[in-house]
Amino acid sequence: MDSKRGLFLVICDDPELASTLVHIQKNMDIKVWVPSKCGQLQTSLIDACEDSIHKEALVKGDVTKASFFSQWKEYKPICVVLSLKDIEKYSNIRELILTELPDARILSLQIGRPEEVPRKLIDNDRELVLSWTELLSRPISAELRHIESSHRVKEVRDILDGGDKIALLLQPDPDPDGLASALALRALLGRNKVSTPIVTFGKVTRPENLAMLRLLDLEVITIKPDDLSNFDKVALLDTQPTHFTVTLPKVDAIIDHHPMTGNYSDIPYCDIRSKYGATSTILTEYLRAAAVNIGQRLATALLYGIKADTLHLNREVIDADLYAFISLYPDINYNLLRRMEKPELPMRFAPVLAHALTSMAVKESILVSYIGEVEREDLIPQVADFMLQFEGSEWAVCAGIYENNLVMSVRNVGYVKNAGDVVKRIINGWASGGGHRTMAKAIFPVEGWKERYGNLNPENIKATVLNLFIKEAL
């Protein structure tokens, strides 16, 4: 039993429904009620579910007894799917759930048309009631995410609302996904930029991100790690403590979609979903579950966050990203979105790109370039993006010097090794970095690089980077 994963408890008298639900829910421990007495329902439920889940997930018992539910109290969160044709039995069991599992969320499925069984949230949003007809009109997984998000919204509010001043901390060079997520969390908490500022240890550098700040009137404050002690609460958005080169003095919440890179069991609130394409998707689900109005400015930011981190929905997306995108699209400002996506590039970028392309080192399917010292860090990933377009390339790595660090941007085609995993093996704990399957970033202190790999001669750097990726990526 893994109570930290949460419990997904199915109580229904329809074998097909039970089978469908256990196929969908993958993130929580699944338990399916089976009548203790032998009979047709017991046999049908076992036959429908036993090929999809372990036998111990089929729980025999009497659901009319309080003891059946009290045994699950250690789980957090708990989602109970309740669907029974016997109305009296349904009502009695529902009362037992409310009494014995006071923190549980309930998804009640009832027979009837939407007009006969209108969608509604009851008991302080603990229970979502909807008809079978409406359920079939959109995936069950969306309803389950809504239930889970309702629980998470209450939890993160309870943890963060206790602070008068809250820091929303992003990575050193904040991107659209992080910026949008911070703006969304601030809206979810009902805060303003004075009491809940967006902060970073670096600064926004990429032109499209600077355009986002300007067009959406966002303010990002640069602070030092020690400054976090001036805040009552600290929430990390689109990043994790291990992504930083320093130890953070305090962290109260993490909301991120990158692969988990540390043990965060001591952090009060942690919602890391590596299957999601963007943290903005997670925050969109929070806002929908909490019935928070998403205005044009916030909708534009969130949709841009999703587009930017998923390359226009072409990379690492799941149905949740698509639903969030579709729900936000009608409310965005299209003109602002276009201006953020296509910011002007300075002419001085042209010789940088030309130098990178003429100095590439190539081995098998790996392309490596070094563009020297740059005044803007965003030039490095832009070159890497461009390099991956060459025929036969599967890996593109661009390195450059920015503010006494050797910064490496990594891109791949998606069907090779995970870029984030490869970078983690390369940095091996002495530098910082991470990423996803198809894109990653590493930051090496210049002095540390020279100690391990020699001088900063361009040819030496390219050869070193190429050898590192031949060893770890092929």
From TrEMBL:
InterPro entries: DDH_dom, DHH_sf, Oligoribo/pAp-PDE_c-di-AMP_PDE. Residues 167-306 form the DDH domain. Coiled coil: none annotated. It holds the Pfam family DHH. Gene3D superfamilies: inorganic pyrophosphatase (n-terminal core). This is DDH domain-containing protein. It comes from Fluviispira sanaruensis.
